């Protein structure tokens, strides 16, 4: 218990540092997977497809948890808000693990579409990726503040403002990721790239 209290105390005193460290570790894992630096096994095509489907399920549930968290805080149900947002954050950690396995141990898919559909898909995918990258430190900062301060203390921090930005960027990123997943896997189809 003393170790947990010490860690919480240090994170409370330096939430921006904790945010930076956690964000850098997350970015390093993703870039390591993309760059082939992480020693990941190569998976079968079927398993990579299964990972993609699992990611879509995890992200759908995370988006629902975020929406529930927004509803709860708007109705002043702080404990339910906290539970919903920590659920969403935990699911994003699960997503990260699945995504690293999928990217590092599999292959990329390219949508079978042309013209407007292809352009719309690429634009949505680009916005999804950009928002995913940008939202990491904002989401982590909101979570660090939420875990290290009481509800009364949070009113004196930037938690609410950072949380609104995090929910907007994170929620839109998840939504666009799900739309592109459906387009790629269930509407237009794909070919390996």
Automatic annotation (TrEMBL):
The chain crosses the membrane at residues 17-41, 47-71, 83-101, 121-144, 165-184. It comes from the Archaea. Keywords: Membrane, Transmembrane, Transmembrane helix. The keyword Phosphoprotein does not apply. The keyword Repeat does not apply. This is DUF420 domain-containing protein. It comes from Haloarcula japonica (strain ATCC 49778 / DSM 6131 / JCM 7785 / NBRC 101032 / NCIMB 13157 / TR-1). The lineage of its organism: Archaea, Methanobacteriati, Methanobacteriota, Stenosarchaea group, Halobacteria.
């Amino acid at each position: 218990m003393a170790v947990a209290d010490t860690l919480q105390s240090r994170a409370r005193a330096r939430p921006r540092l904790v945010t930076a460290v956690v964000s850098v570790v997350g970015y390093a894992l993703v870039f390591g997977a993309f760059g082939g630096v992480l020693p990941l096994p190569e998976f079968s095509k079927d398993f990579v497809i299964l990972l993609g489907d699992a990611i879509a399920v995890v992200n759908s549930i995370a988006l629902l948890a975020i929406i529930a968290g927004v509803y709860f805080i708007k109705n002043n149900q702080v404990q339910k808000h906290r539970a919903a947002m920590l659920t969403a954050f935990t699911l994003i950690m699960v997503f990260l693990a699945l995504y690293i396995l999928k990217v590092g141990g599999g292959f990329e898919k390219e949508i079978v579409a042309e013209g407007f559909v292809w352009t719309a898909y690429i634009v949505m995918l680009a916005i999804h990726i950009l928002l995913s990258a940008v939202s990491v430190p904002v989401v982590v900062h909101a979570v660090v503040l939420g875990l290290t301060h009481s509800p009364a203390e949070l009113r004196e921090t930037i938690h609410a403002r950072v949380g609104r930005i995090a929910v907007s960027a994170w929620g839109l990123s998840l939504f666009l990721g799900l739309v592109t997943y459906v387009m790629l896997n269930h509407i237009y189809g794909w070919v390996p790239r």
